[in-house]
Amino acid sequence: MTHDNYDGSFFGRRKGKPLSPKRLGLMSTHLPRLRLCLETPAPADLSALFDADVGEVWLEVGFGGGEHLLHRARENPHVGIIGVEPFVDSMGKAVAAIVENAIPNIRLFDDDAIRVLDWLPPASIDLAYQLYPDPWPKKRHWKRRFINTENLDRYARALKPGAEFRFASDIDTYVDWTLQHCRDHPGFAWSAETSTDWLTPWANWPGTRYEAKALREGRAPRYLTFRRV
């Protein structure tokens, strides 16, 4: 995702190429139904958000092209997944796929993920993903990275005890940054026991377009898993 403007706590470009008339129509018709309404309090039981009968609720912050979000939703029909993505093109693709494939266990939010994390009830999320976020590689921009003490506090509040927070990146400085911040945070413990643990994707990993680009350009992805303690 390309980010170049600051908007509250989110740095980012929200629009790219214009949506096709078909996707624009799907967005207009279906995003209001799929979008979380943060103007009302979150239900105590988040399963009430979904049309499907779900037993767990997962969160993916910044789902990009939606490959992982859609794959996990199809693979786990009894899990409700909240996907957050402010980039309009990506949201348009996700809405189209959800509608065309009649996927009942996804809810969406097209704005700042901090708003969702603050809206969620405490200890309500069973698993959270943040995959290939903008790394802000220049040191003077590191303060813009989403992984920081304040946002880890938000994740820790929303995750159930024992739940996992999964993070992937191909940028070494952001991997190191995330390791340091999560290991320093009292709410998280890094679960890796050997070096292969963070070189190996999670089970049934579908890959993402960002990962494919990294591999083409010779960068090695890292997969970090932290447990909410």
From TrEMBL:
Protein origin, superkingdom: Bacteria
Positions with a binding annotation for S-adenosyl-L-methionine: 60, 85, 112, 134
Keyword Membrane: no
MF term (GO), any: tRNA (guanine(46)-N7)-methyltransferase activity
Gene3D superfamilies (alphabetical): Vaccinia Virus protein VP39
Record bears the keyword Transferase: yes
E.C. number: 2.1.1.33
Catalytic activity: guanosine(46) in tRNA + S-adenosyl-L-methionine = N(7)-methylguanosine(46) in tRNA + S-adenosyl-L-homocysteine
Binding site for substrate: 138, 170, 208-211
Biological or metabolic pathway of the protein: tRNA modification; N(7)-methylguanine-tRNA biosynthesis
Cellular component, GO annotation: tRNA methyltransferase complex
Assigned keywords, A-Z: Methyltransferase, S-adenosyl-L-methionine, Transferase, tRNA processing
Homology family: Belongs to the class I-like SAM-binding methyltransferase superfamily. TrmB family.
Record function comment: Catalyzes the formation of N(7)-methylguanine at position 46 (m7G46) in tRNA.
Protein name as annotated: tRNA (guanine-N(7)-)-methyltransferase
Organism expressing this protein natively: Roseibium aquae
